[in-house]
Amino acid sequence: MNNERIFNLIDELLITNKPEQEKLKSICSILKEEVFHYDWVGFYILDKTQNSLLLGPYVGKPTDHTKIPVGKGVCGQVAQSCSTMVVQDVSNIDNYIACSIEVQSEIVVPIMRNNEFIAEIDIDSHAFAPFTNRDEELLETIASKIKGLF
Ligand code: SME
User: What is the rounded distance in angstroms from the CA atom of residue 31 to the CA atom of residue 42?
Assistant: First the structure.
């Protein structure tokens, strides 16, 4: 993975006048194509009235989990803690919502605006323990770049 190359691709995309939803979907595609160990990339967006996360644009296999209550699963926990969660082995944690048996690991990064949680980037991997600080740096920088899209 080449973080600088990915930042450039995203910067180029952000200055276009495509609709926000299209930009978000393109960001998912860029991440999935550029990083070998990313198999499912998507956004969950906070719906305050339902105290739940709603599935936004994504790439990868369709998921049944289109609505996740805050607090539930890895995604729901990040909505509460507002900090990145790295799960190197999903079989090790209890509060986990399985999407597919192929998924072995997951990283979820919060997207904050004005100190408030608004959405998150969720990435599933079929690899065991693939994530390093480079993933966190990559995704936290992207989260900050795209917070205006929600
Ligand atoms: N595994 C997530 C659910 C979302 S899917 O990975 C797309 C979780 O535990 O919150």
Answer: 10
